[in-house]
Amino acid sequence: QVQLVESGGGLVQVGGSLRLSCLASGSIFRLNRMGWYRQAPGKQREMVAQVTRLGSPSYADSVKGRFSISRDNAGNTVYLQMNSLKPEDTAVYYCYADTTPGYTPYWGQGTQVTVSS
Question: To bridge 20 with a disulfide, which of 4, 8, 68, 74 should be the other Cys (CB 3.0-4.6 Å)?
Answer without folding.
Answer: 8
